[in-house]
Design a protein that fits this description.
- The chain has 15 helices and 13 strands.
- It is α/β, with parallel strands linked by helices and about 425 residues long.
- The protein has a domain of about 210 residues: Rossmann fold (3-Layer(aba) Sandwich).
- It has a 6-stranded mixed sheet with strand order 4-5-13-10-11-12, with helices on both faces. A 4-stranded parallel sheet has the order 8-7-6-9, sandwiched between helices.
- α4 crosses α5, α10 packs across α12 and α13 crosses α14.
- The longest helix has 15 residues.
- The protein is globular and about 75 Å long.
- The model has no long low-confidence stretch (mean pLDDT about 95).
- The structure holds pyridoxal-5'-phosphate (PLP) and zinc ion.
- Zinc ion binds next to loops.
Length: about 425
């Protein structure tokens, strides 16, 4: 039997502790609950060598996850490539740039990290149905992991999502419920459903304290892949703000348990990326406010279109504390950035990835992200999920009849299109 290092859930606001059950808010002050660990014991037990000998998945960091199951519910998510992006760096006027390529996860987004943790806990607590409120990627990941675990699933999404995201959720055989409303409506509905369905584990509601912890593995992997060094600056997309918070927590934990090189400089700067059509955290950052004022989303970046972000306040604090920034970009900047990333690095990102790269470009141009920094941008989802947003820009350059003559007339020696038909 492996040692268990997670000790309790604690309230972020008042510090009260709770047992490791399906609880997510403090009875006393309504603050969010978060997993707490025995870091001294982890520091004594964990070494880079032991981690290196673990699975090539998020579960190599089991000691720092809130459910320490040796046979987790998983599809092999995590341990995605961290790639040096020299061509993109040159385009953006940056020095050392890396991309954390989470398009490579089993269902094509970083959500496989959080879902694997949530459903492992759901199974342990005896939930019969895996459920969630989703902007799209979570739905597909829940449905897939539930199928893997032999659980039923019910995923609830806004009705006008991208086709691929609905299809990915439906194909795994769970129930997909489309709601005539936006994500914030879906989320409210799920908050009510939790009370009505005690045998349903909602990944991002009653299991949120566990689910959210899965995002720490982004920080763990980035540090390990850099040789147990922290980067200087990480750029993270912001929907609910959970991912950003947990990336920050992940680096802090590595330093607490002594896994980072001793010669590490100041802490990692964390910057957030939002779409201008749904930028409540960026607006609060820019105006110097502590209030996240809810907005009605209007952007092609559906996976980050959360007008009333649950963890927005904490994300804002994490950014400010670290010396980062939160930027926002227009939909056309998002599309340009998807193209730029694909052309320079061979990575096809969904719209949320476009948000991150476009924001990185903007922060680089403003000097917020420096040339002398080691920068990591998180590319959180695959472009095949959002092809319709590319429109006709991603079609053939030319269409020709099947004849040599026509082909030669249309395409030049370096592969360029000579003539459009
Ligand atoms: C959910 C999602 C995000 C946002 O994550 P939060 O934890 O909600 O901030 C970013 N990118 C992709 C691809 C997502 O699916
Ligand atoms: Zn409390």
């Amino acid at each position: 039997m492996d040692p268990v290092f997670v000790t309790a859930l604690t309230c972020r606001e008042c510090g009260r502790t709770y047992p490791l059950d399906a609880l997510h808010v403090c009875d006393w002050c309504f603050g969010p609950l978060e997993a707490a660990y025995d870091y001294e014991a982890i520091a004594a037990a964990l070494s880079p060598e032991e981690i290196a000998a673990g699975p090539r998945t998020i579960w190599r960091y089991r000691a720092l996850l809130p459910v320490q199951d040796t046979r987790p519910v998983e599809l092999g998510g995590g341990w995605t490539p961290l790639v040096r992006a020299e061509r993109l760096a040159a385009e953006l006027g940056l020095g050392e740039l890396w991309l954390k390529d989470d398009t490579a996860n089993p269902t094509g987004s970083f959500k496989d990290r959080v879902v694997s943790v949530a459903l492992t806990k759901a199974r342990q607590l005896g939930f019969k149905v895996a459920a969630c409120a989703s902007t799209g990627n979570l739905a597909g990941s829940i449905a897939a992991h539930a199928a893997r675990a032999g659980m039923a699933s019910v995923v609830i999404v806004p009705k006008d999502l991208e086709r691929a995201k609905i299809a990915m959720a439906a194909v795994y055989g769970g129930t997909v419920v489309a709601v005539d409303g936006d994500y914030d409506d879906v989320n409210r509905l799920c908050a009510e459903l939790v009370a009505e369905h005690p045998s349903w584990g909602f990944a991002n509601v009653n299991l949120r304290a566990y689910y959210a912890e899965g995002s720490k593995t982004l920080a763990f992997e980035i540090a390990e892949q850099l040789g147990w060094r922290a980067p200087d600056h990480v750029v993270v997309p912001v929907g609910s703000g959970s991912q950003l918070n947990k990336v920050a927590k992940g680096f802090t934990e590595l330093s607490k348990v002594g896994l980072l090189h001793a010669d590490e400089g100041p802490a990692v700067r964390i910057s957030g990326a939002q779409a201008a059509g749904c930028a409540p955290v960026a607006t609060a950052f820019e105006t110097g406010s502590d209030d996240i004022r809810p907005v009605r989303p209007s952007t092609i970046a559906r996976s980050v279109a959360i007008g009333n972000p649950a963890d927005g306040y904490y994300a804002l604090q994490a950014v400010r504390r670290s010396g980062g920034a939160v930027g926002s970009v227009s939909d056309s900047e998002v599309l340009d950035a998807i193209g730029l990333l694909a052309r320079t690095e061979g990575i096809f990102a969904e719209t949320a990835g476009g948000v991150t790269i476009a924001t990185l470009a903007k922060l680089a141009a403003a000097g917020v992200v420096g040339r002398d920094e080691r920068v990591v941008a998180i590319v959180s989802g695959h472009g095949l999920k959002t092809v319709e947003s590319l429109g006709t820009a991603a079609g053939p350059g030319v269409t020709v009849p099947p004849s040599l003559e026509a082909f030669e007339e249309a395409v030049g020696e370096t592969g360029e299109v000579l003539l459009c038909r």
